[in-house]
Write a structure and sequence with these properties.
By secondary structure, the chain is an alpha/beta fold. 38% of the residues lie in helices and 16% in strands. The chain has a six-stranded parallel sheet with strand order 3-2-1-4-5-6, with helices on both faces. Strands 9-8-7-10-11-12 form a six-stranded parallel sheet, sandwiched between helices. Strands 13-14 form a two-stranded antiparallel ribbon. Strand 4, helix 5 and strand 5 form a beta-alpha-beta unit. The longest helix has 17 residues. The protein is globular and about 60 Å long. The relative contact order is 0.12. The C terminus is likely disordered.
């Protein structure tokens, strides 16, 4: 059936929102004239507000006063969406999907309220990437979906100018090879030690690279411990950038060394090479989805990919990852990037010159 108005009920966390981006391209490719909207937590709006495949980004927060939330619901109903696709499992999003008034409501059969959906899609389990799970909801509508092409974030010209000004302010040379260290992760068991990150930072600086320590406000203590624990100076960026600024900065980073966390997915969506350090998490499900990437995980351990939140052997899976092997992976990406033919990244849907040599 022809679809004129499509609503996507989105998710709440950085990584999950980025993993949903191929859905928008698939919908717009199938129905170029359709109005494609997404509802997402208000703090996540900056990740999507320059996405060329979205016509509308609707802010939402469960903590808002009831009247404000009801105003959003009334606005959804006035738009008379033909279909609502629910990417979430939560009861809250199931209710919103139903309250939208869309006659066709698509979601997983494993949601907390599947009876509120008119079309329930069997959720694949096992070694099946979360991005593909999201696309299964689109495929249920008979739409072909290529995840890799749609897995993108975009940076506006305003943020591009901000990046230039920031580089000048911190004294970052145009020809510097900037390596990002991102220690944060919502599950503490997914975090590589600050001592290992500091050792890696020193090895990188000694080989001529510039290092910046990244992370959100909750990572401030670890970020400071890494920078202070290094013998050589590093740029301190933990908690200093909003999501739009971080997106711009990640286009300047030659390689991001990271745990399983939101900025990892942001870097992938910006086509920045990543070296992802995995312990109890499963990269087949939540790892870097596409693009230049290296996943380091100690497969020889029987307990690897345990998905636990408490470890009886003190994170042995991450302790076995050495700074030297991470350095080797970083340098392999840098070498590959230098050999690759030049090509400008997509910035806000337009081609512009890259931010500087790798």
């Amino acid at each position: 059936m022809p679809l004129e108005r499509i609503l996507v009920m989105n998710l709440n966390q950085i990584g999950a929102v980025v993993l949903a981006t191929p859905v928008f391209r698939a919908l717009k490719q199938a129905y170029p004239q359709a109005h494609v909207a997404t509802l997402v937590r208000d703090s996540m709006v900056p990740l999507l507000d320059v996405n060329p495949y979205l016509d509308q980004v609707i802010a939402w927060n469960l903590r808002w006063p009831l009247r404000r939330r009801w105003d959003v619901v009334r606005a959804l109903r006035r738009q008379r969406f033909d279909v609502a696709i629910n990417l979430s499992h939560s009861l809250e999003r199931c209710l919103l999907t139903w309250l939208s008034g869309a006659p066709v409501r698509v979601g997983f059969d494993t949601t907390e309220a599947p009876f509120l959906q008119t079309q329930r899609v069997k959720e694949q389990t096992g070694a099946y990437h979360a991005t593909e799970r999201n696309l299964d909801l689109v495929r249920a509508l008979g739409i072909e979906a290529d995840g890799e092409e749609g897995f993108r974030l975009y940076v506006s010209e305003a943020e591009r100018r901000w990046l230039d000004e920031w580089s000048r302010r911190v004294g970052l040379p145009e020809d510097a090879t900037l390596i990002g260290l991102n220690p944060g992760a919502s599950n503490p068991l997914n975090r590589w030690s600050v001592e290992a990150f500091a050792r890696l930072g020193d090895l990188l600086v000694e080989r001529g690279y510039q290092v910046i320590v990244l992370g959100g406000p909750m990572d401030a203590a670890d970020g400071e411990a890494i920078a202070s624990g290094m013998r050589h100076p590093a740029l301190r960026g933990t908690g200093q950038f909003n999501l739009r600024e971080l997106s711009a900065l990640l286009t300047r980073v030659a390689v991001l060394v990271t745990a399983d966390t939101g900025p990892m997915h942001m870097a992938v969506a910006l086509r920045t090479p990543v070296v992802a350090l995995f312990g109890p998490a499963d990269p087949r499900w939540t790892g870097p989805y596409c693009g230049p990437r290296t996943v380091i995980q100690k497969e020889e351990l029987e307990c690897i990919r345990c998905l636990k939140k408490h470890c009886p052997i003190d994170r042995e899976c991450l302790k076995r990852i050495t700074p030297e092997e991470v350095l080797a992976a970083v340098e392999a990406h840098v070498a590959q990037r230098r050999l690759a033919p030049p090509g400008p990244p997509e910035i806000g849907g337009e081609s512009v010159a890259p931010p500087g040599p790798p």
